[in-house]
Amino acid sequence: MKIKTKSKKVNKAWLHDHLNDTYVKLAKKEGYRARAAYKLKEIDEELKLIHPGQLVVDLGAAPGAWSQYVRRKFAPKEVGGLGGAAAGELNGTIIALDILPIEPIEGVVFFQGDFREDAVLAQLHELVGGRPVDVVISDMAPNLSGIESSDAARMEHLVELAVEFAQNHLTPNGALVSKVFHGSGHSQLVEIFKKTFRVVKPIKPKASRDKSSETFLVGIGLKNPGIQVDKRS
What we know:
CATH superfamily of the largest domain: Vaccinia Virus protein VP39
Number of strands: 7
Radius of gyration: 18 Å
Mean pLDDT: 87
Largest sheet: 7 strands, mixed
Distance between the termini: 52 Å
Number of helices: 7
Structural class: alpha/beta
Number of domains: 2
Strand order of the largest sheet: 3-2-1-4-5-7-6
Strand content: 15-25%
CATH topology of the largest domain: Rossmann fold
Shape: globular
CATH class of the largest domain: Alpha Beta
Helix content: 25-40%
Oligomer: single chain
């Protein structure tokens, strides 16, 4: 019973913090599905990565907040100045993928699947249709087991897959924004980015919770554009 009581106290404390979180309130006010939108917004405002007319691929898209942000960048003059607040043709293309379903977002091409599976990757490749991708954004993360070495290995695998996709599909000056965890395996991920991109920037957005080990790596400009990478063969 003591354990359950402690658990209830922890849950109540988390709920209290969540409901009083500045970004949770802001997301509700501005119509975003999650506070995560402000992580991408902060990164984009600093580095100026996303512009109308681009092709953006959103990996780990659920519940859709990052795609919502990109959509608003592609339709900045819609109702209320928020972009995406009303129907309208987008100046740009958004392709989103997640293992979980999401509620439809007008103008966003979404399909459900596991990015680690070859069949899903082939479907994503087909949707891209040979067009060069301007920006890949990845909020993918594994289900955490609590075993640091195991979780780090799973995260590293997802990031490696995102980097591989970026290498194969980005324009020469394109960018990859990827979630990573600061801890075991982080230095290896930084090295992977440095081998792939001309510019690498680690960023901890203010919207990331202070207690979270979450951070983001941004790679800009491929060192070897046009070289197809396939570690699966």
